Amino acid sequence: MLLHIVARGKIGRSPEAELVMRYLKRITWPTRVTELPDTGGKLPPVEAQTIRVMLDETGEVLGSMAFARRLEQWRDTGTREVRFMIGAADGFDDAERAGADLLLSFGRATWPHMLARAMLAEQLFRATAILAGHPYHREG
Fold it and tell me: pLDDT tens digits for 9-37?
């Protein structure tokens, strides 16, 4: 199952970019990152069996174990791609939110979208490590 981050804004060569790459390189599942300009730009086509997850402060707050179990459920039911959408500074509008399969929040605080990208990459690594039985995650 492909873990695909589609993010608004160019991360360039920054400390956040280094963090994103550090975690994505550790993931044994296929990954992809697509960057779009802050406005406009063409989204990659959504293929069948794609789950769309939007990072949004109003979304569901999942602990690492619950997030891993959600990925496991999608993987085990034939999902081909989980597309994680990170919006620009103003986030997503109501119509975009309505098209998501899951709104996911990293808490009620507002995070810079470049830092949210690094946090997502870390959580994806953590979730796949949990599912592989790797000791990276320590519960409790």
Answer: 888 888 889 999 999 999 999 999 999 99
Q: Are 23 and 122 in contact (CB under 8 A)?
A: yes
Torsion of CA 109, 82, 21, 126, to 10 degrees: 70
Q: What's the rounded Cα separation, in Å, for the pair 138 and 114?
A: 26
> Which residues does residue 33 pair with via DSSP β-bridges, in sequence order?
5
**Whose CA is closest to 81, among 130, 45, 134?**
45
* % helix, strand, coil for the chain, step of 5: 35, 25, 40
The pLDDT tens digits for 90-121 are: 788 888 889 999 999 999 888 888 899 999 99
Question: Is residue 128 exposed (0-12), middle (13-18) or buried (19+ Cβ within 10 Å)?
Answer: buried
Which amino acid is located at 31 in the chain? T
Residues in contact with 61: Cβ distance below 8 Å, sequence separation at least 6, in sequence order? 105, 106, 107
Query: Which range among 21-25, 35-39, 52-56, 72-76 shows the weakest confidence by mean pLDDT?
Result: 35-39
